[in-house]
Amino acid sequence: MLAPYLPIVLLFALAFGFAFFSVAIAPFTGPKRYNKAKLDFYECGIEPTEQPLGPQRFPIKYFLTAMLFIVFDIEIIFLYPYAVSNKALGLFGLVEIILFIVTVFSAYAYVWRRGGLDWD
Q: Which residues cross the membrane (predicted)?
């Protein structure tokens, strides 16, 4: 009964095994030549103006942009299956996707109105 899911389980096991193996073996295989340039802070090729005394805080705009990207990226992931099988879903699928798009655009309008897309 679960035989059709065996390839997916094997793929997940292979991906997890590869990730675990890569992280576990990295300390033993990587070079250990540390120098001042590697331990120094890097700011896009520009010399740092001051050395931070501790962990620096990033402005909330960076995190907001990342979260918005994820939300609208997930929207595309949900739209793709509909685009592939829109004829099979018929009118019901069309109504559901219209409701989904209206919901996403209302979230987009809310973020736009609140200034989430404006950079200072």
A: 6-28, 62-83, 89-111
